[in-house]
Amino acid sequence: MATKALDTMTDTDGVLITAHTPDKGFGTPWVTVGGVFDGIYSNVLRAAQNSFAVWDLYCTADVVFDNFEYFADVTRPNDGTTSAHAGLNFRHNGIQKSSSTNALSFVWERNTGDPDTVNLIIREWLGVGISNQVFQTAYPWARAVGKRMGVLVSGQSITPYLEDLGGGNRVTFAPVTAVNDFNDASHQRFGLWCQVSSVDNQYFDNLTVKDWAPGGGTPIPTMFLGRRYTSADVWRFGVGESDGAGPEGSPVGDTITFLAKSDRFAPAGAGGEAIFTQFWIALTYDMTVTLRFTPIVDGIVYDGTGTNPDLRQTLALTGTPGVRKTERYEFALYLPYDDGTDPDALRTDLRGTWFQLVIDNMTVLGAGDLIIEQPEIEFEIVRESEAAQ
Asked: How far apart are CA 243 and CA 256, in angstroms?
């Protein structure tokens, strides 16, 4: 996914955001509307300590209006003010707050019942009025803690997510459908929203807009669904429970493994050739298990056996039974080249006709569920087959 716009807030301490130049794509300067703001300190944008600060920040350059990912690192203030909320602005029409302003926002709002939880909202700005779709209530987010807030946007579909500050451990929420269709060339601005009656600061950093194809790439045909229930036991037809001491007297410690293999996928056709650069996988789980991913290209299993390079990658999941979460992971695909002095001196992408992905478990399946959704592959066609031309 190509980065369309980026601002790491790298600047001299005390520089106002209106005098700051973004790294890429957002244009110069940023525009702020309403309230006051503090500036950039330690390469982070700081929202002012103020009795009541409200500000709308948006860029001056058109970036993109459809099929994008937008995220930023956001740190809550360290107080329990009930009016505090902040978040991302996107599909902004670049008009200062008035009856003509349109924008969408992904907002956290302090939960009045518990200052260390928040409500998560998709907000639509219709002039001076707003429309809210609250999709999570009392979500755990402690004061003075930062998270990465992000959205995947296609048409009127908005898929919000949260990650650790700086990225990682993504929690993806169910898509929200925007009521108003701001999906056009006049809504290509991005920014931030902040409101806080606070004695402490809020912080924002790493504003990023990327191209994004729905699903992240091209789906590999076939989906594997794996699922477990209630305990570390698996019910096997004609045997009863195993992998534990079941009431039917089944064997104790009879280890259960699984192997998921996608259909073969040839994006350039059966006689063509493509470069395979990375793949994505979405997992819904509440179990603890370590998974292993093995790529196969044109029948070559990259598992380290024989002369084949070992391109297997592992992923450790830590879940709590009964508390499901959905996360999306990205894995690079490349071949290391050994020049005789450095086994990883050069990297080249995998290249071939047919791609296949194998998933298995390296540790015992824990209690709970594991749902492996459709994997997706990013590729570049080098040569199409005659049938595909």
From this structure: 6
